[in-house]
Amino acid sequence: MSPLVQSIWTVVVFVTFIGIVWWAYSGRRKKDFDEAARLALDDSDHPQQPQNKTEE
To answer: In the 3-class helix/strand/coil scheme, how is 7-53 assigned residue by residue?
Structure first.
């Protein structure tokens, strides 16, 4: 590849990276990311375990 094409490709990739970072940290996405962060801690989808376990 020629140096000009490599330079253009570098700029395109850098601008794309900055766009993704801007999108991820924008205020409109905060609610969605907060919900996703709590998914691992959310037990509402799982049946509850019995509290009293019998020991053998």
So the answer is: HHHHHHHHHHHHHHHHHHHCHHHHHHHHHHHHHHHCCCCCCCCCCCC
